[in-house]
Amino acid sequence: MGKIKEIQQFLQKENIDAAFITTPDNVFYVSGFHSNPHERLLGVMVFKDAEPFIICPFMEVPDVKAAGWSFEAAGHEDTEDAWDVVMDAVRKRSALPTSIAIEKSHLTVERLERMGQLFTGTEFFRLDEQLNNMRNIKSEDELVNLRKAAELADYAIEVGCREIAEGKTELEVLMAIEFEMKKKGAEKMSFDTMVLSGLKTASPHGTPGDRKIQQGDFILFDLGVVYNGYCSDMTRTVAFGEPTAEMREIYETVREAEQAAVDLVRPGVRAMDIDKAARDVIDAAGYGDYFTHRIGHGLGISVHEFPSMTGTNELVIEEGMVFTIEPGIYHPEITGVRIEDDVVVTADGVEVLTKFPKELLIIQP
Amino acid sequence: MGKIKEIQQFLQKENIDAAFITTPDNVFYVSGFHSNPHERLLGVMVFKDAEPFIICPFMEVPDVKAAGWSFEAAGHEDTEDAWDVVMDAVRKRSALPTSIAIEKSHLTVERLERMGQLFTGTEFFRLDEQLNNMRNIKSEDELVNLRKAAELADYAIEVGCREIAEGKTELEVLMAIEFEMKKKGAEKMSFDTMVLSGLKTASPHGTPGDRKIQQGDFILFDLGVVYNGYCSDMTRTVAFGEPTAEMREIYETVREAEQAAVDLVRPGVRAMDIDKAARDVIDAAGYGDYFTHRIGHGLGISVHEFPSMTGTNELVIEEGMVFTIEPGIYHPEITGVRIEDDVVVTADGVEVLTKFPKELLIIQP
């Protein structure tokens, strides 16, 4: 529960009475309990000077305890007003807080209006940056899970390559990967696994389907695995049979761009510099118009989290940050190629978590 | 685009200048475009007296068009402020709205604060009830998709039953089901498929794993399929080999409770009456303490939507509503059993969408 203490220190420093954490991933971060509450109320309330509690659906109380939460778990039944349960738990601990830090990028207007009625006269402050800053820098415990999630993703790509065969559909390859992952003990995939072949690779957000793999195709795998609540997210593009010269050129451009970005990662460079390192390579090769998204995004409990690695983000990279590097070229008439690694910023450079080779792999039919 | 017209009529009636729709499922409902924007801005702005537009990530503009959206799709790049794009689109159409209806149960405090700065002096109203009321009553087009989603779920249960065998793990059965669903053209499962066996059935939110199926087990399937954006959600519990007398008693109690609730469904009864019909049967059999959740929830584009079928909801049921009926008994020492159907309220009764038999099915080892 070191995270709770860190939030209490923040409250003391800012002289705010309480914090209410409601993003499911942040609830997990501070409590160890991971759940999608749908429309039900789930949150952790931390006090400057009193014990925290978690408010959760009644039937999840045992799961909260099993997840290691050692403070009060206040369960609310579907038939009662969850806010009554919150107020009871608050009153047991302290006078009504006169200032509460909330996650303004997550808490809904409706819930804030309700809190405004219940905590009359209370001022509300932002908690977002505090939580983002904490989550931005991964602890060694978190890195252990991220390394394992990346290792599983590497293996998933290996399985995918093994499954590729003439006439197999994208979905067949995809299901074989997911089955193998579940057998390996992966909780779940971080997002819908993508297996795209032929010209479908040229859609950055394509949907795998019944298309049959043919000789001469590039096959793009974009996938990730959740391990102990932490996500990987990686992409590899491989060839089935001989690719054309144009396909090779696009592949090598993306590979060079990706490597240029990875090589730049170290404390002190800015997010935008890393984006630019890759974009310059792709621009120089004449494919600039076909690289239509940012270089990457932060990765951890969420598959998309801070920092956002865009061409305009001046954020200075620090040791312990984890993000993806994933340039792509999407040429609707030739092919799409994307290569994506997960990287950790180390004291003096970079640790690449995803290790599946990036030289063009040509699978022989 | 009849939905857009309906929202315009609402704006005219309430004399509100514009509506901003941001829940991804509601964006789909009014635009036909389904997407999870993660932290990026996605929304549909509807005006009392001007053409609507959708604001979306730039790279999704082609998908928006392909989904049938015939109005402007304003794309924002990751490198620009999405709100600049919103304001440009607004200014092209009208003077700044002085009143905007928003989804207070979805829009974040941060976004409302931003809108408050951009639309100076604008008043914000609730749009939630209008959208809920629209979505609460399913159109015939929507029912076509819901029927198909339920049919696929029925088939998924059939596949699951076929796959059950001594020593197979829960995950093996689960993956076989999901593979078959993808082959059948299901977009995706509505939620993480649940296959639980033995005493794991006694956890309403259990996680499938490596447990091997054994003779004498109950096996609980809870699953759903998305078809054309619409969800099914059903549960069946089956036996592998002979169950004990106590297991049978629990099964028959749940079956009777479920049927009592289904039989009560018609326009004019209240949600709480339907809950009570099932709960009374379970209470009378002495298992009341083991039925720990509401009788069901609305179903449509979201797998959990309105109405919430709790024991305290006085909502009067109307023709066209669709919800689940899913009583369960979770006895930690004997077994868990849940039976769940998807039902539509008809003019004078009920149409049950999920048709897999509810008599206790005993699969012979």
UniProtKB/TrEMBL annotation, chains A, B:
Q: Which UniProt keywords apply?
A: Dipeptidase, Hydrolase, Manganese, Metal-binding, Protease
* InterPro entries hit by this protein: Creatin/AminoP/Spt16_N, Creatinase/aminopeptidase-like, Creatinase_N, Pept_M24, Pept_M24_MAP, Peptidase_M24B, Peptidase_M24B_aminopep-P_CS
Enzyme's top EC category: hydrolase
Q: Which domain of life is it from?
A: Bacteria
Q: Where is the Peptidase M24 domain?
A: 145-347
Q: Which residues form the Creatinase N-terminal domain?
A: 4-137
Q: What is its EC number?
A: 3.4.13.9
- Tell me the protein's name: Xaa-Pro dipeptidase
Taxonomic lineage: Bacteria, Bacillati, Bacillota, Bacilli, Bacillales
GO MF terms listed in the record are: aminopeptidase activity; metal ion binding; metalloexopeptidase activity; proline dipeptidase activity
Q: State one Pfam family annotation.
A: Creatinase_N
Origin organism is: Sporosarcina limicola
Q: Which cofactors must be present for this protein to function?
A: Mn(2+)
What is the similarity comment for this entry? Belongs to the peptidase M24B family.
Keyword Hydrolase annotated:
yes
